[in-house]
């Protein structure tokens, strides 16, 4: 459901217009092929370059903006893609739909590099199918010049809003209703009707102070038009460019976490190369190369030694254990997703 | 008889050749999807998108009032969103007409080369991606944007105006996008207006207002109505402008439909909403066509010419 993993470039509207951008990396007269289908700006092009040169494979990259968009395209019969990057809950969905191929990546000798806590998909407890790829928190990015005291959590965010400054929330039913769950102390995966209604009410009670629901909030926070916005850990890229103005925090009351897994499709035309790519990505130096550009979390333990110090020491990217315990990940809700859709519509119509 | 028969046959072949292609195109790319949507709107939603092939009436029940289960609840909000979309679309039509109608008159009085230049200028924005142009409006309308800074610099306002993420921004964005669609049909009928008629009206003693109401307006009405329809229909279903300039707080029917197909994974309900939109538009169009043909018949006192060769 998260639209843009790294930058504001892939917005809701651009993905709606299906501006598919294909990148091709190929050495001269490559033998094999490998076709990736990934979120926009969610892999370091250098990783593809290195793989392409080492294995003499032509790598193409197509992008999507949401899990649903990717699933719809694969379900509609799009063939030719070898590897996709679903969120953990979508990994479960795709497994249940029989769309994923067994890779045996979990029994590869280098799989010992992977932190076991990141094998999160319920349908794939031995990592026989997919490789945990990257993760990060969903928190708050704010403009230090506009707010009077630093924002530490959701309560502060809404206090800033109540004081008349502008704040933006994500245009995402589960993330935004999730804030209500966190504040009410209920699970972000709750399917109890009363709890979901109460979580929605938490946001509705404060909706008059929310300026907008959008993913494209970074430029407005940078310029100070908006004091704070609900955004992804990737905001650190902008924080590192404007350290005097911007700040990203993981809310003290708790937050959500996202994680994507790297999966091979059952319909993959180049399954052998796809498995080679998964194995290639187990190497610590490759995972570290990706993190250096993406500024997000990797489950690869030895890679942590190789990443730039300012990323490894950034507690919003690699939070201490006690903060990690306050982060919740979304599960697939099956049919109950419609409960959230219903409440989301109630929330949106309350805005007017 | 033989000759007539062959001639008719040839005409039929020619007609088939001329209309066959477009008919096939419309059949495959317009009627086909329409029928799929119609069928889907009466089916049960699948767990992960798609449909389950069981007859299911609650999709319409949610909109019109008989659904009451855990997931499918009647809510008047759907009709309210629908009514607001119609209202915003009507505002868009009204404002773009108010801009294009006088402009069309002025441009039609210009020398030939200037006319062409202005028409070119009006279509010029099409050369730039819609998304880029809408983001430009975000930059213009925001509190530290150009418009607010200019107004404050001139001392007209002391505080930035709330423009971005409001209904006003949505209508402004849609008027901006759809002006060329309104201008071209209006201009086409204004251009054809015979000034001799206007002079005749003045000679016969009509005043300015009377001339406008009884002569100019009826003669340019086809362009005005054509332009209004072409602007009304896409405004009604628009979802990009409300999500970018309305900050997704101003929900229109298009956003609701998009949400059903993506995050809610409820294709049948999205299809049912689309059907309601389409039915409304069709009813409006039918009323218009009937009105037009009735007027045509009233004007054409003579019997219709027959196509027979004598």
TrEMBL record, chain B:
Residues annotated as transmembrane: 12-43, 86-105, 117-141, 161-187, 215-233, 269-289
Membrane topology is: Multi-pass membrane protein
Per UniProt, the keywords (alphabetical) are: Cell membrane, Membrane, Transmembrane, Transmembrane helix, Transport
The UniProt entry, under CDD domains, shows: TM_PBP2
Identify the residues that the record assigns to the ABC transmembrane type-1 domain, covering every copy: 82-288
The cross-references to Pfam families, in alphabetical order and at most eight, read: BPD_transp_1
Where in the cell is the protein located? Cell membrane
PANTHER family assigned: INNER MEMBRANE ABC TRANSPORTER PERMEASE PROTEIN YDCU-RELATED, INNER MEMBRANE ABC TRANSPORTER PERMEASE PROTEIN YDCU-RELATED-RELATED
The entry assigns this protein to a family as follows: Belongs to the binding-protein-dependent transport system permease family. CysTW subfamily.
Identify this protein by name.
ABC transporter permease
